[in-house]
Amino acid sequence: MEARRQLKMIRRSLFAISCLFGSMLAQAHPFHTSLTEIEYNQSEQVLEVAVRFSPVDLEEALTAYHGKTVVIDDSDRQDQMIFEYLRERLVFSDASSERGELPLHWVGKQLQIKDAWFFLTVPWAGGELKLANRLLLSIYPRQINTVSILKQGKKSPHQLTSQSNTLIFQP
């Protein structure tokens, strides 16, 4: 009887240790991604940009970026903070000239439990574009930023990382 009790205690201890160790490993090697979808609206001469994050990842990035705790909710209180972050970390420019950055324009957001979507436009008359996507890279060095170019009903996905965060494309 005593041996059974000891065996049961050992099993519980091993289970607790494996749970603790497993959660530490999960925190040490988390998987973080963002998705940016870009489609050219020729009649309006704008790029329509949709960016998706995990709300938790974005809150951590905004907290680090602004130096104070940021909690995202349905109100518009954080919109300016989010927009400033996006303007600095998602930079569009003309690939064929040195004209500098193209302006981003805030359209809105859609918050869900697992996803936070942000909608932007970029004025563009045509030609090659350069996109520097550094979203979340300052806090998650292993971050993967997927950029999907939507053209004539087809998606062309590209994965950008901290080692390669720039894309040149024709919308």
Descriptive overview:
- The chain is built from three helices and nine strands.
- 29% of the residues lie in helices and 36% in strands.
- By secondary structure, the chain is α+β, with helices and mostly antiparallel strands.
- The longest helix has 27 residues, at 2-28.
- Mean pLDDT is 84; it is low at 13-29.
- The chain folds into two domains: 1-30; 31-169, no CATH class.
Terminal CA distance reads: 73 Å
Give the structural class: alpha+beta
Outline, from the CA principal axes?
globular
Oligomerization category of the chains in this entry: single chain
- Report low-confidence residues grouped into runs of 5 or more: 13-29
Radius of gyration in whole Å, from Cα? 21 Å
**Strands across the major sheet, in which order?**
4-5-2-1-7-8
Whole-number mean pLDDT? 84
Would you summarize the structure shown here?
With 171 residues, this protein is an alpha+beta fold. 29% of the residues lie in helices and 36% in strands.
